[in-house]
Amino acid sequence: MHDTAANILLAACAYNGADPKRNHHLLKVHNYCRMIAEGEQLDAHTRFVLEAAAALHDIGIHEAERVHGSTSGAYQQLEGPPIARQLLAPFALPAEDVERICWLIAHHHTYSPIDGIDHQILLEADFLVNAWEEPFSDQQIRHFYTHIAATETGKALLRAHYLPDIT
Q1: Where is the HD domain positioned along the sequence (predicted)?
Q2: Can you tell me the distance from the alpha carbon of 13 to that of 8, in angstroms, rounded to the nearest whole number?
Q3: Which of the listed residues 49, 70, 112, 146 has the most CB atoms within 10 Å of its CB?
């Protein structure tokens, strides 16, 4: 993994502090993003931006809870980008990368419209993890598989983990 990506992941875990639930979640989403990105043969730059966004995708959850009394996706999307900007500042990334990472954070629960392969993969990875953690119903998983999942790798992971009857 690119050193900067690893350090962003460490910064996200440090920000979450002693919150293993949140840290385990972001590590799982990050790993699924890496797996799907590799399977879909993403270029190195897009993969880096995706991995940074995956590390920080739920970074606004504590602030959402504090300010709004809720961890809902809408509040995470609202509160996450300002925190992500602060955490990304020491890395001196190009402004366009910071903007894209923050855009992905602000849309990681937004299924329509999907803007780019990085957005698609982040949605798929987060869904793969949330389907187990929430958990989601078989009907919800099948709907996501049929109407939202688009990458071959993401669909293969959904079939392997949740939908063995689909070939």
Answers
A1: 24-115
A2: 9
A3: 49
